[in-house]
Amino acid sequence: MTERDIAKMIDHTFLKPDGPEDAVEKLCAEAKERSFASVCVNPCETARAAELLAGSGVEVCTVVGFPLGQNTTATKIFEAREAIENGAGELDFVINVRLLKYAPEKCLEELKALARASKQAKSGVTIKLIIECCLLDDREKRLACRLAEEAGFDFVKTSTGFSTGGATAADVRLMRETVGGRLRVKAAGGIRTLESALEMISAGADRLGCSAGIGILDTIKKGKQ
User: Does 32 qualify as catalytic in the annotation?
Assistant: First the structure.
């Protein structure tokens, strides 16, 4: 794969609660320069990122119910609508793991409400479901993927990167086998090297969420020299 191919698969991410004052400005400048798929920022940074990326072709992604997924459905809907109003074109929702495990029918009900509200707020918005694989067994991972598909999500995503583990090739492979070509798969959490990125892509990932995108692309450049 070329540098550009991989760049178009990366959500260039800054979700830390701290960091330099100009972190979002730097993130967006890098995304424009490298033609990343999107930047992924916290909700309070969405409007600023949208302003910085206007007309660039780089999408603004933000997170909803992050990082635990334990907000009420109404809160998540408000977050999603506000994010769209602030310029987000992609939304990464965190699943309510406890609902998934103990009340899957209620989990599906919530997911349908989130998908419906998002699509009504903006036609063409991309919605991803973070299923937090590190907290689930394989049966639950497959169930989460099936519920995401039934609810109308566009992607399933491995991890927030803020729990007990990140993306693994085995989880990406399981998710890809479950959703086939009907949904896309995003791997996120701990993807810091070109080797790791290629492993996730080989396992079936369509998108990579990472803060190390510049280093990954620079490794490709160095390999060509």
Answer: no
